[in-house]
Amino acid sequence: MLTAIRREPAVALLALGATAGIAFALVYPLSQVLIEAVIGETGFDVSPVVRVITQPVPQRVVVGTLVLGITTAAASTLLGFAVALTTARATRGTLRSFLHYAALLPLIAPPFALALSTIFLFGRQGMITKGLLGLEISPYGFGGLVFVQTITFFPVAYIVFDALLRQLDPALEEAAYNLGASRGRILRTVTVPLLRPAFAGAFLIVFVEALADLGNPLIIGGDYDVLATSTYLAIVGEFDTRKAVALAVWLMAPSIVAYFAQQLWVGERSVVTVTGRPSTGTARKLEAGIRIPLIGLSLGVAALILLLYAMIFVGAFTKLLGIDNTITLENYQYVFRIGGKAMGDTTLLSAVAAPIASIAGLLIAYLVIRTRLRGRSAFDYVTMLGAAAPGIVLGLGVLLAFNHPPLALSGTAVVFIIAFVIRTAPVALRASVAALMQIDPSIEHASANLGAGAVDTFRRVTLPLVTVAVVSSTLFSFARNMTTLSTIALLLTPDWRIMTLQILNEIEAQRLGSGAAYSTILIITVFFSIVVLQRLFRGPRTATEVAT
Amino acid sequence: MSDAFLSIREVTKRFPNGTIAVDRVSLDVREGEMLSFLGPSGCGKTTLLRLIAGFEVPTSGEIWLAGKRLDTVPPNRRGTTMVFQGYALFPHLSVFENVAYGLRVRRVSREDTTRRVERALGLVGLVGLGTRQPNQLSGGQQQRVAVARALILEPALLLFDEPLSNLDAKLREQMRFEIRALQQRLGITAVYVTHDQAEAMTLSDRIAVMRSGRIEQLGGPREIYEAPATRFVADFIGRATFLPGKVAEAANDRVGVELLGRMMRMPVAGALAVGDAAQVMVRSEAVEISEDAGDGIPAVVAQANFVGGLAQYMLRAGEHALVVTVPTEPGSIILAEGASVRLRLRPELLRAFPA
């Protein structure tokens, strides 16, 4: 370390800054949750935490949370696999692109938009259940939750399978074909076994997402309580911090275990099956007997997604969809009248936090990948806690940490920005790590060899080569900030208005139409900022495009 | 040594995993000389080069350049520019900016930079390509940019890390001549790492043949070819067949070896005493093949291949096999497989090593 400081003072300074930043914004808040959980008025006391699983009511919530998480994860994994198989092995051209983008669409929806349109379609006054079929079915509860969560989170599984299927060397499947296997047999004996890490990875990621989900259970959960909603209500409804932290501990534990299991397991395994060299040739289509049902299923899913999205738009233009279908602009007028501040505030806070998160991610990635500091991987693992811990737990930590002197920041923009940054910096970190690993270290060695110091090399060589990764993770962070609910749900303040919270209020007050109008505006804002900014930043080349 | 420009003194590099990549190597490079590190992969040649460039820090030992201690200087202040394997061109910068990079870092004035970049591009034959991006260049052109980028700083020492290994065979041969001509014209001291013996032979004033982190032999191209110090060098440089023999007499620098039933007096490398088993290096130029019956060693052509201007024979003499390559004249007859021939060995071209 001493020699490192002497050789590269900039690196030592960066390491110190990163340590301080992570400690302040992430470790301190999360540790507050744990400390509150085990320190009572009389000193060390874990009984509230233990009571969560010994008493029947909270115990039912813990079990319910895990059952929901496992069910949603299993359903999303299977659906994600089926759709990925369709786009990779059963369709080409326009149909493939259509299915691909339709499957990605739920990623840019705010967390409860799909719950809202599910109520429009399948609710007690639902257009399909009541209107079309004349049924009186309630979507509220376990079944509705699994449905909405699966539609919301299967795209995450889809991305995992899609990436791995693309990277699979077609030569492996060709070899099996060449040896006489049918395409169905190849799928069973070659493709699926090679995708085994993807099944595990997709399941674990969706499991973590489902556990952290706050918006859908609040809106469509009915009396099916989960840990995220119970934690939220403990603070918002009961003002009972001790109960909230006890529940938060039980929510945090399985999330963090599942998250790091996924990182370690899938990170290790996928290297074995994926070759770095570009594959030649394209994979073969499956035979009709498999292909046609797959296409049918995927088209059905795509149609459902589009329908759900359409319902949000339609719902926003009607008085109360299903009951009074009069076309109206009232909802928008209402939203613009009372919601202007929320739109401005949310966009401002999101836009300020996003670049901070991606620059923090880049600098930490640089420390982890490009320096020889002892213990550098600790930066990586600790930062990833921001993605592993459920949003409501992070929010609770931020609330507790900055509620009292010396850091009495609650109610200020700073707490929102801290919450946004620690939530999205892990994504920026992964993107920057991937980008840095693609840069041959000899390119940076060449810079040093030609006389540049670490700062010069970073500025002149490394930074330009990772621009694309930094820009896209900034966009991602922005979109995620705009649409997140769980992370900021507890950070109530009269000074700053957040759109997702406003939407939640509207829905809870049964003003579904204005909730839909709000959601529409949010979706459009996110969509256009991504499209526009991506156009603006198309210039710089990535390292991979250049064959050296 | 007074004429040492670069001096490597007892340098050892042990990696954290315990591998000793460079093992107590000492070596002097003279000013204006081009010296190659030649050896199979894993012999430590690249590590030794990276120690000189400063990308690795020696575990023990010292490196001196022009009378100054080098191994304690950070890599960016050494003035030992390098041509990288795979070139390591900056993919986001134009050819001009790649070559200008070192000058930009040193805050050289605009006019000076332009002038010097133009001259460097001229030296490597890339005039007018300054605005191109690296990925718009062929492999050979990328190679020249890498050379220009390193040359422009007028380095005290120029380092080459297998710079030609990514090029196809023809281009590789052409670049060899160009690099050698440039180095001689500019009088630059250079260290060149390669696993390709032909490359080392054409380019170098001297070659250090390396094996397992040590220098096996240091000498001029002819010396290491004609008088290899060890069996490893004899095997690695050029082609040779090794035949077992038994030492029958030993005197000064010659030994008498019983080989294929004959007694032959030949040069020796290493310690061989009467009665020892020996391995005898037989290169093609030591073998004469004749079809006439005579007093030569009887042999049979087991396999004959024509390889463009050369005929390659696998010959069987008793239980031993040897591979011999001979030039062919256009229209001349190539021996048929199965033909019986007589072999005559020129003893002064053979070399005996301890078995």
Q: Structural class, from secondary structure content of chain A?
A: mainly alpha
Largest sheet of chain B: 6 strands, mixed
CA-based shape of chain A: globular
Report the uncertain regions of chain A: 268-281, 539-548
Looking at the structure, the CATH topology of the largest domain in chain B is Rossmann fold
- Oligomeric description of these chains: heterodimer
β-strand number of chain B: 20
CATH architecture of chain A, by name, is: Orthogonal Bundle
SSE-based structural type of chain B: alpha+beta
Biggest interface, and residues per chain? A-B, 25 and 32 residues
Q: Helices, strands, pairings?
A:
The complex is a heterodimer of chains A (548) and B (355).
Chain A: H1 2-7, H2 9-38, E1 39-40, E2 43-44, H3 47-54, H4 56-89, H5 93-104, H6 113-122, H7 127-132, H8 142-167, H9 170-178, H10 183-194, H11 196-212, H12 215-220, H13 227-236, H14 241-273, H15 288-316, E3 318-320, E4 324-327, H16 330-370, H17 377-388, H18 391-401, H19 413-438, H20 441-449, H21 454-483, H22 499-508, H23 512-536
Antiparallel strand pairs in A: 1-2, 3-4
Chain B: E1 4-14, E2 20-30, E3 34-38, H1 45-53, E4 60-65, E5 68-69, E6 82-83, H2 95-105, H3 110-123, H4 139-151, E7 158-161, H5 169-186, E8 190-194, H6 197-203, E9 206-211, E10 214-219, H7 221-226, H8 231-236, E11 241-251, E12 254-259, E13 262-267, E14 277-282, E15 287-290, E16 297-306, E17 310-317, E18 320-327, E19 340-345, E20 351-354
Parallel strand pairs in B: 3-8, 3-9, 6-7, 7-8
Antiparallel strand pairs in B: 1-2, 1-4, 4-5, 9-10, 11-12, 11-14, 12-13, 14-20, 15-19, 16-17, 16-19, 17-18
Helix pairs in contact in B: 2-3, 2-4, 3-4
